[in-house]
Amino acid sequence: MTRLEELIKELPPEYHKEAQDFLEFLIAKKKAKPRGPLKLNWRGALRDLRDKYTSVELQHKAQE
């Protein structure tokens, strides 16, 4: 019997589902596709607004 099996058997039955959910989460996290490098193709898109708005004003407008 592995240590993991021993630990699971020591858990009270009401925690078995929680342990199962956590293990499934870890497996899904491991299988998650790694993201590639960030693309900055948007860089400079607001250059024409540089003299009209501050960066803070643009942040507020983006939230509207």
Description:
- This protein starts with a helix and ends with a helix.
- It has a domain at 1-32.
- It contains three helices and no strands.
- The mean pLDDT is 88.
- The chain has 64 residues and is an all-alpha fold.
- It is 52% helix and 0% strand.
* Largest sheet report: none
Number of helices: 3
Overall 3D form: elongated
List the helices and strands in order. Answer: HHH
Overall average pLDDT: 88
- What structural category do the secondary elements indicate? mainly alpha
**Proportion in β-strands:** under 5%
Tell me the radius of gyration.
Answer: 24 Å
Q: N- to C-terminal separation?
A: 58 Å
Could you give the count of β-strands? 0
Helical content band:
40-55%
- pLDDT under 50 segments (min length 5)? none
Chart the SSEs and their pairings.
Elements: H1 3-10, H2 16-31, H3 55-63
In a nutshell, what does this entry contain?
This protein has 64 residues and is mainly α. It has three helices and no strands.
Question: Which descriptors would you attach to this protein?
Answer:
mainly alpha; 64 residues
